[in-house]
Design a protein that fits this description.
Elements lengths: L5 E2 L10 H9 L2 H11 L5 H8 L3 H14 L5 E3 L7 E3 L4 H4 L2 H14 L22 E2 L5 E2 L17 E2 L2
Length: about 160
C-alpha cells in the first residue's frame, strides 16, 4: 500500500506566529483604514469619521482597541473657545506600520492599480523615487528569490500524516 503524503502546514503554528498576531491586532478592514488615515496625519475622531465614512460606534470601538494595543494614544487637545477633546496620534509602534503599509501600497500599485498610481514615495532630500525592498545587513538590495525564512526549531510545526 502506498503511503499517503504528509499534509503540509505552515512551518510555525498561528498561535506562535508574529505575523498572525499582527493580523489579529490590526487585520480587520476598518482598523486598517483607520491606520491608513492615521499614517497620513488624521488624528481626531470627527476627522476619521469624515475621512472614512465609518459608523461612529465602529470607529469608537476600533480606536479603543488601538489605544489598548499601544498603536495609538489618547491625547487631550483644546482649541480656543472650545471644550477639551481627544485626538489619537500614532505611537512609535503605530508609526512603525508605515513600512508595511507602503509595501502593501506598492503591491497594490503593481497588481491592482492598472496605470493609476495615486501615491508615489520619494526622498525629501533629492526627490528621487523610493521603493520598499528587501535589504541585507550591509544595506544591499536583495531579490525576493534570494530571501528565505528560517524557522527556529523550537517553533517548527511537524507535517502530519493523513491516515
Amino acid at each position: 500500500m502506498k503511503e499517503k503524503p504528509p499534509i503540509r502546514r505552515s512551518p510555525v503554528a498561528a498561535a506562535d506566529c508574529n505575523l498572525s498576531r499582527s493580523f489579529e491586532l490590526i487585520g480587520d478592514r476598518w482598523t486598517l483604514l483607520i491606520l491608513r488615515s492615521a499614517l497620513h496625519g488624521v488624528r481626531r475622531f470627527d476627522d476619521f469619521q469624515a475621512d472614512l465614512d465609518i459608523p461612529r460606534t465602529v470607529l469608537s470601538n476600533r480606536l479603543a482597541g488601538l489605544v489598548e494595543s499601544g498603536i495609538v494614544k489618547r491625547r487631550n487637545y483644546r482649541e480656543a473657545g472650545q471644550r477639551t477633546r481627544v485626538e489619537y496620534p500614532l505611537t512609535e509602534m503605530g508609526q512603525a506600520l508605515a513600512l508595511p503599509f507602503m509595501a502593501m501600497t506598492q503591491w497594490g500599485d503593481k497588481y491592482l492599480g492598472g496605470k493609476k498610481l495615486p501615491l508615489t514615495l520619494r526622498a525629501k532630500s533629492t526627490g528621487e523615487k523610493i521603493a520598499v525592498a528587501y535589504v541585507d545587513g550591509k544595506g544591499r538590495r536583495r531579490k525576493a528569490s534570494d530571501v528565505e525564512a528560517v524557522v527556529d526549531p523550537a517553533f517548527r510545526q511537524p507535517d502530519i500524516r493523513n491516515d
